[in-house]
Write a structure and sequence with these properties.
The protein is α/β, with parallel strands linked by helices and 313 residues long. It has two domains: 18-63, no CATH class; 70-310, 4-Layer Sandwich (Purple Acid Phosphatase, chain A, domain 2). The chain has helices spanning 15-26, 39-64, 104-116, 137-144, 158-174, 209-212, and strands spanning 2-3, 69-77, 89-93, 121-124, 151-154, 183-189, 192-198, 221-225, 243-246, 274-277, 282-285, 303-310. The strands form two sheets. A six-stranded mixed sheet has the order 1-2-12-3-4-5, with helices on one face. A six-stranded mixed sheet has the order 6-7-8-9-11-10. The structure holds fe (ii) ion (FE2). Residues 95, 97, 127, 157, 159, 248, 250, 288, 292 line the site of fe (ii) ion. Residues 95, 97, 127, 157, 159, 248, 250, 288, 292 line the site of fe (ii) ion (FE2).
Length: 313
């Protein structure tokens, strides 16, 4: 199940609904009654409404949202981006978590959805599996089908380490996806370079941006892949990073109205999801595509971001 809306249209009431509002106002009666309804009837209706909302919320969180993928589109200005890279797209696949909560069929659907977007670059920001036995040849074959015009790059997440880092690394290699573990690749487009770098996981590995970007020419723009967005707070001033892509948070999986996500696996809550201003660079955090813990999502649909890089011009 997928959906590609990102541009919300303002809701404008039509004449009929305005007429209904006027009609309802005209029926309002004394303070002891709610619109002609006794206090007892009102409380009964309110209880039923709360019950229905609770059941509806549970159905949504368990059965609808976890599988209701959303393609989100973002134009992001990347400092130092060469003009030849202006308009180039990056699809970000994060936190698939193949395992008890996300099936291989889910992964297949994600790969097909990504390929339909025809991205130039695919950035995979970790947590491919939740359990060691989810690392299978079938997963390799699904990942191998990812198509990108310019390149595909991956980093590891904490769950990959907890499951079996050696197995995940072997799977990525078999699928033909370069792993950026405190390392980088420079890609040239019409003679203009762009650096894609990646760091090891913050929880379970050793994140080292200095090592990842060692030797990159100063004028070359840099995109850093990092599973855990908290690392944005630890980035050194040099070497410079121009944009960081992260996942890990799942957006909280459950986002309560007016409150936000009750649970986030990060220190700095500002990195829950979306484009955030970090101390050194912009940080885009994907809500990810899978789940951990309870197999639920509420008010936090799984997302596949398609980022269009923009230069200043
Ligand atoms: Fe995750």
């Amino acid at each position: 199940m997928k959906d590609m809306d990102e541009t919300a249209q303002p809701f404008l009431p039509d004449d009929e609904s305005l007429a209904m509002v006027d009609d309802a106002k005209s029926r309002a009666t004394s303070p002891g009654q709610a619109g002609g309804m006794s206090r007892r009837s009102f409380l009964k209706c309110a209880s039923l409404a709360i019950g229905a909302a609770t059941v509806g919320g549970a159905v949504d969180a368990l059965a609808i949202e976890p599988h209701w993928f959303k393609v989100t589109r973002h134009n992001i200005v990347v400092p130092n981006l060469p003009s030849k890279w202006d308009g180039v797209t990056i699809a970000q696949i994060s936190d698939i978590h193949v395992g008890p909560n996300s099936t291989l069929a889910h992964a297949r659907e994600i790969v097909d959805m990504c390929n339909d977007l025809r991205p130039d670059v695919i950035a995979l920001t970790g947590d491919y599996v939740s359990k060691a036995n989810a690392i299978t040849q079938a997963l390799v074959e699904v990942l191998r089908d990812l198509r990108a015009g310019v390149g595909k790059f991956a980093v590891l997440g904490n769950h990959d380490y907890w499951a079996n880092a050696t197995g995940v690394i072997a799977s990525l290699r078999s699928a033909g996806i370069p792993l950026l573990k405190n390392s980088h690749r420079i890609v040239t487009r019409a003679g203009e370079p762009l650096c894609f770098a990646g760091v090891d996981d913050l929880f379970t590995g050793r994140s080292d941006a200095a090592q990842a970007l060692a030797g990159v020419p100063r004028g070359t723009a840099r995109i850093l892949l990092c599973h855990n967005p908290d690392y944005a707070e630890e980035l050194p001033a040099e070497p410079r990073v121009d944009l960081m892509l992260a996942g890990h948070t799942h957006g909280g999986q459950v986002v309560l109205p007016f409150i936000g996500p009750p649970v986030l696996p990060i220190k700095h809550r500002k990195y829950a999801a979306g484009l955030v201003t970090g101390p050194r660079c912009g940080v885009f955090v994907s809500r990810g595509l899978g789940m951990v813990g309870a197999p639920i999502r509420f008010n936090c649909r799984p997302e596949l971001p398609l980022i269009t890089m923009k230069s200043y011009q």
